[in-house]
C-alpha cells in the first residue's frame, strides 16, 4: 500500500505546467512573383512584390505540460502587428527583370503576423547537463500584408490592397538544452512542410473581382530556430529571452486571377519567401 501511494505521488510530480506570456519586436521581409503564362514564360517574371523591413510589436503565450516518460506537450501562439515598412511593386516586359514598365514604392505600415503550433517532444538523450529532445507537431501561420498609397505618386490615392497568406503543415526538429544552477540555455531547430494559400484584394484595378482578385496555391518548406536564455528568479518564476528566426520558402505553384467580365486566368506562381526575426521577453511560471 505504501509503495502504491509513493508511486502515485511520483507520477503526480511529473505532471507539471509551465505558462510563459511574452512580448516582442519583429522585423519581416516577404516577396513573391508571377510569370506571364502558365508555362512560366512571356516573361518569366511579369510582376513582383517585395515587402521590406516590416517592423512592429507583438505578444504571445506558451503553455507546456510535462508528461510521464520524458514526454512534454507545448502549445504556443504569437501575434505581431506591422507598424512600419514599405513595398515595391514592379512589372516587367522581358525575361529576367528586364524592361520594367511599372514600378512604385508603396507604404506598407499595416497588417499582422500570427503563428500557432502544437508540439510533442521527447527527452531522448542526456549528457551531464545537456539534454537532447526530438520534436514533432502541427502548425498554422497567417500573415496579412498591405499596399497603401504612395506619397510620391498621386495615382495611388485610395490604394488599400491586401495580400493574405495561410500556411498549414507539420514540424519536426530537435531541442538542445543546457541546464545549470544559474541559467538554462536552449536551441530549438525546426523544419516543416506546409501548404501555402493566399488571397489578394487589389482594390484599385477595376477589371479584378473584389474581394478576391486572385489566389496563389503552392507548397512550402519552413526552417526556424529559437535561441532561449532562461534565468530563474525562484522555484516558480523565470525570466526568459528568446531570439527567433522564421523562414519560409514557397515553391512554384498556381496563380489564378478573377475578372469581372472575363473567365478566370491561370499563370505560373514563381514562389515566395518569408523571413522573420523576433526578439521576445517573457516570464515563465511553473506549477
What does this structure look like?
Strands 1, 2, 3, 4, 5, 6, 7, 8, 9, 10, 11, 12, 13 and 14 form a 14-stranded antiparallel beta sheet that branches. The protein is elongated. It is mainly beta and 287 residues long. A hairpin with a 4-residue loop joins strand 11 (214-232) and strand 12. It has one domain (16-286): OMPT-like (Lipocalin, Beta Barrel), CATH 2.40.128.90. 5% of the residues lie in helices and 71% in strands. This is Protochlamydia outer membrane protein domain-containing protein. Residues 29-285 form the Protochlamydia outer membrane protein domain. It comes from Pedobacter frigiditerrae. InterPro entries: OM_adhesin/peptidase_omptin, OMP_A26_sf, Pom. One of its GO terms (molecular function) is aspartic-type endopeptidase activity.
Which secondary structure elements does this structure contain, and how are they paired or packed?
Blueprint (H helix, E strand, L loop, with lengths): L1 H13 L1 E19 L12 E20 L4 E11 L2 E11 L3 E10 L3 E12 L2 E3 L2 E19 L11 E20 L4 E18 L12 E19 L4 E14 L2 E5 L7 E22 L1
Antiparallel strand pairs: 1-2, 1-14, 2-3, 2-4, 3-6, 4-5, 6-8, 7-8, 8-9, 9-10, 10-11, 11-12, 11-13, 12-14, 13-14
